[in-house]
Amino acid sequence: MTHGPVTTFFAPQAWLDEAVTPNVRITIHSGRIAALESATPRRTGDVLLAGLVLPGFANTHSHAFHRALRGRTHEAGTFWTWRERMYDVAGRIDPDQYYELAKATYCEMALAGITAVGEFHYLHHGPDGRPYGDPNLMGHALRAAAREAGIRITLLDTCYLNGGIGVPLEGVARRFGDGSAAAWADRVSHLAPDESTRIGAAIHSVRAVPRDALPDVVEVAVGRPLHVHLSEQPAENESCLAAYGVTPTQLLADAGALHAQTTAVHATHVTEDDIVLLGETATNISMCPTTERDLADGIGPARRMLEAGSPITLGSDQHAVIDPFEEARALEMDERLATLERGWFTSAQLVAAMTGHHALGWPDAGRIAVGQRADLVAVRLDSVRTAGADPAQVVLAASAADVDTVIVDGRMIVSGGRHVLGDIGAMLSRAITPLWSPDAS
C-alpha cells in the first residue's frame, strides 16, 4: 500500500516525540515519512492538516462480525448470555455477508482514525463446520474488506478446538474449529502476507485450546504476532485451576506463549503473580474498556501491568463503541473509579496505547518520524468537544467524531470527516439489517 508522488503536509500542531510541536511540515514519499521540519512556516503547495495531527491509531483486538450486535445485545444478562446472541449471528453469516460487514466496520474504524486492525479471526468454516472449497475463504473476505476500506490488517488466525476445557465444539461453534492443532496449522500455512496484510496467530483461550496443543500454536507463531484471550472471566480462571492446577497465565508461560510478540487480550482477572509473569516477558496487553464494561467483565489492572513491564494497547473487541479516544480515556477513568484517585496515565502514555502497531507486526508505524509509515490523523480542535482544549490534553476531550483527516501509508482515505467510499452509516445498515431479518438463516 505505497504511493509514489511526493506530498508535503503542514500541521499547525503535531504529536512528535510524545509532545505537541507547533508548525510541522511532513513530507511523504512512497507511503513513508521522508522528511520532517518543525517551527517552520507553511509553504506554497503544502496541504493543510488542521487541528492536531497524531500518528495513526492501531486497533489491536477486533471481531468484525460482532459489529452486528451493537444496539441489540445490551440488555440485562451476563457475558455468557451475550455469547448466545453472538452465536446466533455467527451461525448465519456467509462469506459475502462477512465481506460487506467487515468492509463497513473497517470503514467506521478509519473514520475514527484507525489505520491498522488486528482481526482475531475464528469464524472459519461453513455453518455445519465443514470447510469451504477454499478453507481460508472467510479470512480472504476480511483481507479484501480491509483493503477496500483502506486500512492495514493483521489477520490473527485463531486456533479454536474446544467449547470449554474437555468440552467438544457443538452447534454453531463447529464453524470455529479445525479438529486439531495440526489441521489448523496446515490451513494457516496457506495464508501469505502482503504489503497491507500481516498473518498472525491466536490461541482463542485456554478454554478453547488444550494444554498439549498450546506448544503447537506457539511453534506456528514464531516470528509472528501471537494473541490470546486471557482471564476475561473468573470462570475461565476457575476451570483452568481445576483442570491444570495453574492460572491461565502460568499455563501459557509454561507453553512458551508469553513474550514480546504476544498480546494478552483483556487480562481482567489476573493475579499479582500473573502480572509479574506478563511484565517479565514483556507481553503486550490489549485492553478493551468499552467491551469490558458492556459485558460487565470488570476493570483490569492496566496501570499495574504497565508498571510491571507490559506495554498497553487498545482494542474495540465487540465494537459496542469504535472510538480510540473513548478506549484511551477509559484506561484513566476506570482507574479513577477503582482507586478514587486521579492521574494514572499521562497523555503520552494514552497516545502510546492508541498507537500500538508493534503488537500487530507493524513496528514501522505508530510514530510521526522519518522512515515511519505515513499514517496521520488530524483531529479538530474547534468542535464542541475540543474547543478551548489544550492540544496536549485533547485525548481526554476528543471523540471519534472529531477526526477530520486520515492518511494511511500516504493515501488520504478520510477527508472532512468523510470516507472516500461515501456514506458508511448506510453501508453498515445494508450489511447488518439482513442478519437480523426474520428469515435470516
Structure description:
The chain has 13 helices and 19 strands. It has 441 residues and is of the alpha/beta class. Strands 1, 2, 3, 4, 5, 16, 17, 18 and 19 form a nine-stranded mixed β-sheet that branches. Strands 6-7-8-11-12-13-14-15 form an eight-stranded parallel β-sheet. A two-stranded antiparallel ribbon has the order 9-10. A hairpin with a 2-residue loop joins strand 17 (403-408) and strand 18.
Helix proportion of residues, in percent?
A: 25-40%
> How many strands?
19
First and last CA, distance: 37 Å
Mean pLDDT over the residues: 96
List segments where confidence is low: pLDDT < 50 over at least 5 consecutive residues.
none
In percent terms, what proportion of residues is strand? Answer: 15-25%
Structural class: alpha/beta
- Main β-sheet description: 9 strands, mixed
Silhouette: globular
Helices, by number, come to 13
What Rg is obtained from the alpha carbons, in whole angstroms? 21 Å
Care to give the gist of this entry?
With 441 residues, the chain is of the alpha/beta class.
